[in-house]
Amino acid sequence: MPDLSKMKKPDVKLVFLGDMNVGKTSLLHRYMERKFKDTISTVGGAFFLKQWGPYNISIWDTAGREQFHGLGSMYCRGAAAIILTYDVTNWQSLVELEERFLSLTDTANHDCIYALVGNKADLTDSKAHLCQDSDGLPEDRTECEEGRTETHVLSASPTPPASPTSLSDMLLHKQVAREDAVALYGRILRYKGLDEKSSLPADKMCFETSAKTGYNVDVLFETLFDLAVPAILRKRQENQASPTVDLEDWRQVSGKRGKSSCC
Ligand SMILES: Nc1nc2c(ncn2[C@@H]2O[C@H](COP(=O)(O)OP(=O)(O)OP(=O)(O)O)[C@@H](O)[C@H]2O)c(=O)[nH]1
Ligand SMILES: [Mg+2]
After folding, report:
1. pLDDT by residue (tens digit) across 41-50?
2. What Enzyme Commission number(s) apply to this enzyme (predicted)?
3. Residues forming beta bridges with residue 87, ordered by sequence position
4. Owning domain of residue 215
5. Which of 3, 105, 216, 240 can pair with 209 through a Cys bridge, CB separation 3.0 to 4.6 Å?
6. What is the mean pLDDT of residues 29-33?
7. What are the beta bridge partners of residue 86?
8. Lowest mean pLDDT among 4-13, 143-152, 172-181
9. How far is the CA of 157 from the centre of ligand 2 (A)?
10. CA distance 236 to 43
11. How far apart are the CA of 63 and the centre of ligand 2, in A?
12. Spatial CB neighbours of 115, under 8 Å, sequence gap ≥ 6
């Protein structure tokens, strides 16, 4: 039986959501382990604990596969920040955020923060300079270049598709422009009933990252940690006012001593 008294109780929860294959797990590995390593498609969900100053933050990685969709709203329950992740080389992964994942966030805190993250920025044509790791050192150039050749960009006036299959194929490979993510951020705020003027601006909350090179990964996590601090302080104040056992938080750590765990 693990010694529960020695476990860190998370102060706040951050949740990654997004379609399969967009790189959620890879972003977490890059930030927590400073590595880009092989992944297998996530089953259910997994969480990592991060000490941020005096605060303990749990970061939840969820499965993007359709078969696990039902679990998403459970993971979002009580979340202080939700990171909606797409693949910048896959237009459909942005569409899925709005169509499939946004409604899962209904269980998040009323003051939850939303970030949009376009991962795999190393695969876009315009980002050749991004092939560096998070320490600013050049990474394996060949790998970056190989990746880029896989990218397919739709021209401004695409030739009409010959069949529905080719349309979905084109959408799959169409790159996502930053403005499209910014427009979606605006729609997310409207969906949440939030006023754009008094919410965090799209400029600050729409990120492009590369788990492979490390580009913008630290900025993403550390911006979110900083933004989550007021929610932690509010929660601590509420707990002091009416001390109760938070079963959700307790469940997250019970039986799990390590830095990360799956469930
Ligand atoms: N080029 C490139 N490939 C990436 C990047 N991030 C992830 N990948 C690759 O994309 C694939 C999927 O990555 P995962 O991190 O497993 O994706 P996921 O979103 O966790 O997928 P699910 O667990 O199925 O929801 C893997 O082959 C990764 O190596 C990136 O920034 N650049
Ligand atoms: Mg995963």
Report:
1. 999 999 999 9
2. 3.6.5.2
3. 119
4. 4-260
5. 216
6. 97
7. 118
8. 143-152
9. 34
10. 32
11. 6
12. 81, 82, 83, 84, 205, 206, 207, 220, 223, 224
- DSSP-derived secondary structure letter, 160: P
Residue with tokens 């498609």: 41
Q: Which ligand ends up closest to the CA of 118?
A: 1
Rounded Cα distance, 30 and 85, in Å:
15
Global pTM exceeds 0.95: no
SS3 252: helix
**Residues having CB within 6 Å of any atom of ligand 1:** 18, 20-26, 39, 41-42, 63-65, 119-120, 122-123, 147, 210-212
| Model confidence pLDDT, tens digit, residues 78-128 | 999 999 999 999 999 999 999 999 999 999 988 999 999 999 999 997 654
- Atom 2, ligand 1: residue with shortest CA distance: 120
Provide the number of structural domains found in the chain: 1
Tell me the CATH number at 99.
3.40.50.300
Q: Which tops the pLDDT comparison, 32 or 235?
A: 32
161 bridge partner residues: none
Task: Give the whole-angstrom CA distance, residue 87 versus residue 145.
Answer: 17
| Residue 68 DSSP class | G
Query: How many angstroms separate the alpha carbon of residue 256 from the centre of ligand 1?
Result: 25
pLDDT > 60? residue 9: yes
Q: Which two tokens stand for residue 260?
A: 């990360």
List, for residues 164-189, the tens digit of each pLDDT value. 556 666 666 689 999 999 999 999 99
